[in-house]
Amino acid sequence: MSGILAIFASAFLAAFCPSDTLPEARTLADRRVIEADTISSRRLEEVGGVASALRFTSGVQIRDYGGAGGLKTLNVRSLGSEYTSVFIDGVQVDNAQNAQVDLGRFSTFALSGMELSSAGGTGLQPAREYGAAASLHLHYKAPAFATGSSQTFKGRVSAGSSDLFNPSLYFGFKVSPKLSAAISAEYLTSDGKYRYHAWRYVEGRGYDTTMTRQNADISSLRLATQVFGRGRGSWNVRAEWFDSDRGLPGPVVRRSSGILLSGDRQSDRDLYIQGSWARSFGKAALKARAKYANAFLRYSDFREEDPSQDADRWRYRQQNAYASVSLSYSAASWLRLRGAADLLYSTLEANTVDFSQPERYAFFAALAADASPGKVRASASLLWTSAADRFDGAAGAAGATGATGGAVVGAAGFGRENKTMNRLSPAIELSWQPLYMLRIEAFAKASCRLPTFNDLYYTVKGSSRLKPETAIQYDLVASCGSLSEEFLEAGLRAETYLNEVKDKLIAVPTYSQFRWSMLNLGKVRSFGAILGGNLRHKGRLSFRLDAKYHFQRSLDLSHKGTEAYRGQVAYIPWSSGSLSAEAGYEGWRLDWNLIWDGRRYSSSANLPEYRLAAWHTSDLWLSKDFKAKGAVLCLRLEIRNLSGERYSVVPGYPMPGRQAFLTLQISY
Fold first, then answer.
1. Binning pLDDT at 50, 70 and 90, where does residue 461 land?
2. pLDDT above 90 covers what percent of the chain?
3. Do residues 555 and 569 touch, judged by C-beta distance below 8 A?
4. Closest by Cα among 67, 56, 14 to 657
5. Which of 111, 117, 294, 463 has the lowest CB atom count within 10 Å?
6. Is residue 255's pLDDT more than 80?
7. DSSP label at 351?
8. CA–CA distance, 506 with 516 (Å, rounded to integer)
């Protein structure tokens, strides 16, 4: 492991050589053929988190398990959360264990903004992004200083329902004209308790009661530092430590002895160090990235049968080392050529019996060309993904045959085995602007999802014979904006898409409901339409109105002749939408947001007993900015779930009712 890290570090440091700054490279890198959904830093702070902000973007569902510490994952156009790649300053967040990225773990306090895109990325993007079905970028930019100042400070404290207390600090300072740094810290604590309504009407044994959510507490600390430099190109280095402990309340399940309450716990200790460097060479531009991440997870399972017994404790340590180089060359005023190569090494260690201790070496190489003749812009790319796994043969065979956890002596031996996976992923994008106010966009894209370590090698669930899961996307967008944006802005956007997932990874039970086996049997086809509009008035009295409607039909085509065949995929609503309104006057600001999901099912067998109730929720923010002696003070009152709606995004995980939070922020 140390040798690989040394190679990555040497490759990254070798990129530093004399040059000018890179204004041309920035222009090339920031240019997109297909526009992305962008969210400002202020919007992120107002809605209370990354997951909350994403609810208002196109074609998105958030799986929310409730409370400040509840898992929150992103599902874009029914493809599944494993297909969404999350990037921090252009470097991907890796989770080779299960591919789930918890959006609730990201702080919005120091973010300068974020963007979500299903099409291609920027000119100097890493190779891995070419094959991402959806990309979420979180940006931390260099601190901005007032004229004559070399320091900037921002502090915030929030408190409210569920005994939430969340202080945050950000301090930026200028070391020299070409070097600046930022330090941030954030602490979060909450007992996670909230009232919820539990009910189910089953003939002869129904129940209807109000309870308090237990074991949903969280305590977390985040410390980060980042250094930004210019001179020999533009570079930055970021280091972050995340420490958390939280309860996992589990689903609300009615048993003969009462409603089941989980006592499971999860602790995380994560550290990552990453850096990037970019420079221009006349018509060419170069960007290099590198990262090392060490993530430790401890999961404690308190047995339901006898809570007095000691808990089973599982420990996992995942390590990732990553290096990337991206190139861009302007061959003509209308033609740009791009290329990128990434190298990733991942390993997972665990204390479970007969664990496979897998290692993965993955290589990504991409080539692309962008053309912009006249009013048409086009891009074509091809990504090659190659992965080689090494794992313990005996444990891998146990998982592949659905064994109960013991080693299969003689099935594969006790040595290390190898497994390779290769895929080609092409993509094409088109953008046409026939009029100033009209824009037409389209893309077709193939994506590949490698099976995770849990899919392949987890002793009681994995199968080492799995193939990569592939998805193909087709998308067409028409957007129209107002002729003048000086006083009033207006816009309309219509989008339709078709997705198809092949070799979908699914889990099926073996002899026990607690033991599963992974298979490549699934096939899902999704098509949908999104319609959105916005209206904005600028002036002393400002207002904004934004509305979106999303219809989608996601068909399960896995098993012909079964109840589930051609049924709507579980948890995907047929219709969903959002509405947000904002008004501002002399430092006062009032925001109101509404989100709703229509009918859906908990199984692809769309039978009446699996139907889930539609739900909606609305939030309200009232804020006021005060200025005094160069500082800006902001006081904000937030009320979530204003109507006290009783609902669940995920069945069995009730969401909080009405909650109130007060935030005080000062910056200078």
1. low
2. 36
3. yes
4. 67
5. 294
6. no
7. -
8. 10
- Identity (one letter) of the amino acid at 642? L
Residue 457's SS3 state is helix
Predicted confidence (pLDDT) at residue 489 exceeds the cutoff of 90: no
Q: What is the pTM of this model?
A: 0.84
Question: Please, is 286 exposed, middle or buried when counting C-beta atoms within 10 Å of its C-beta (0-12, 13-18, 19+)?
Answer: buried
3-state secondary structure of 7: helix
Single-letter residue type at 627: K
Backbone φ, ψ for residue 2 (5° rounding):
-65, -35
**Which three-class secondary structure state does DSSP give residue 35?**
coil
At position 537, the amino acid (one-letter code) is: H
Residue 504 burial class via C-beta count within 10 angstroms: exposed 0-12, middle 13-18, buried 19 and up: buried
Q: Classify 363 as helix, strand or coil.
A: strand
**C-alpha angle 390-392-398 in degrees, rounded to nearest 5:** 125
Element (H, E) at 394: helix 393-400
How far is the C-alpha of 533 from the C-alpha of 531, rounded, in Å? 7
Output the average pLDDT for the chain: 81
In this structure, are residues 659 and 162 in contact, taking their beta carbons and an 8 Å threshold?
yes
CA gap 451, 455 in Å, rounded: 6
- 656 Cβ contact partners less than 8 Å away, ≥ 6 residues apart: 66, 67, 161, 162, 194, 196, 213, 640, 641
Q: Report whether 320 contacts 96 (CB < 8 A).
A: yes
- What are the tokens at 257? 């002895």
Residue corresponding to tokens 């609305």:
618
Residues in the chain: 668
Backbone phi, then psi, for 141, in 5-degree steps? -100, 165
Q: pLDDT digits over 633-666, tens only?
A: 999 999 988 988 888 877 777 888 899 999 999 9
Please provide residue 515's backbone torsions phi and psi, each rounded to the nearest 5 degrees: -130, 135
**Nearest to residue 162, comparing CAs of 102, 109, 198, 215?**
215
Q: How far is CA 145 from the centre of its chain?
A: 30
pLDDT tens digits, 609-637: 888 889 898 989 999 988 887 788 999 99
Of 386, 417, 385, nearest to 399 by C-alpha is: 417
Taking the C-alpha atoms of residue 499 and residue 190, their distance in angstroms, rounded to an integer, is 40
Task: Please state, in angstroms and rounded to a whole number, the distance separating the CA atoms of residues 43 and 668.
Answer: 19
Structure tokens given for 88 = 């921090």
pLDDT tens sequence across 18-41: 333 333 333 334 467 888 888 887
Each residue's pLDDT tens digit, 187-240: 999 998 888 877 665 555 556 677 788 888 899 999 999 999 998 889 999 999
- Is the C-alpha dihedral spanning 66, 67, 69, 74 positive or negative? positive
Other CB atoms within a 10 A radius of the CB of residue 580 amount to 21
Q: What is the largest CA-CA distance in the chain?
A: 79
